[in-house]
Design a protein that fits this description.
This protein is α/β, with parallel strands linked by helices and about 325 residues long. Helices cover about 40% and strands about 15% of the residues. Helix 5 crosses helix 11. The radius of gyration is 19 Å and the shape is globular. It binds phosphoric acid mono(formamide)ester. The site of phosphoric acid mono(formamide)ester has 11 residues, from helix 2. Pathway: Pyrimidine metabolism; UMP biosynthesis via de novo pathway; (S)-dihydroorotate from bicarbonate: step 2/3.
Length: about 325
Amino acid sequence: MSEGAFRRKHLLGLEDLSREEIEHILDTASSFKEVIGRQVKKVPSLRGVTICNTFFEPSTRTRLSFELAEKRLSGDVINFSASGSSVSKGETLKDTVRNIEAMAVDMVVLRHGASGAPNYLARNVDACVINAGDGFHEHPTQGLLDLYTMRAHKGKLDGLRVAIVGDIAHSRVARSNIWGLKKFGANVTLVGPQTLMPRDIERLGVRVTHRIDEALEACDVVIVLRLQLERMESGFLPSIREYALKFGLGQHHVRNTPNLLVMHPGPINRGVEMDSEVADGPESVILEQVANGVAVRMAVCFLVWQASGAANVPEPVAL
Ligand code: CP
């Protein structure tokens, strides 16, 4: 395990994390990945710890991945989704979570449509809080699993040339990746329509272009973002067809960029942001990202609980 310590009771974003903290999470995830490869894929690290996965927005990957990670750590897991709950009766986020907490819940994993909701919660509850995606703000565990996957394939993050393509303005995945990658001195280029590019984003130390060919020149990794089809109604784009023609990742892009790693956080709109041949092709590591997500989330749950000092946390068997 790396030397850097992780002393945070909450994981709210990658913006505040140091390079050493991120490396520590990734190294811990490597140990847990070894656990997942065993015949018995379970360690007692969170035995007796109760975790509530609290999802106010839809999710497939993040929700299942957290649940699996928590179970592999022997945590007691409960799941909450806003639909069908008392949220529809007007209950506030704080009241909902304080009621969950009253049932002796130790850790809350939160996905919420409002940017900053996990930060708010962390100030108002005793439990550890992990951000599972908040509004347009951050999706830190997605950023971490992306960094983990890039490092596994390219051997390093320092100086890596990464293009992020798509709806940057509404993407929490893009923000977490930018914060994480910049800690390692990676060269990040953002590509997308002007209407979906935040003003002044260059101040984060990234390059902006509106031509995908230009961004892919001498590029090591391309992260293609989901086009949030619901944005179409808001007049951000003239048509999906035009977007696909200008910004969709096709086989010719991959052929013209040697050793390109193709990533996507999911869910994919096939034929819109990426052709099926690319999504399923040899350069794609999309399903590997999903697999790595479990090990990364095991590491995050373990480390925040350890940092909370709430209990004697046994060392995971693999560490
Ligand atoms: N990548 C991601 O956040 O996917 P879900 O919305 O399915 O969790």
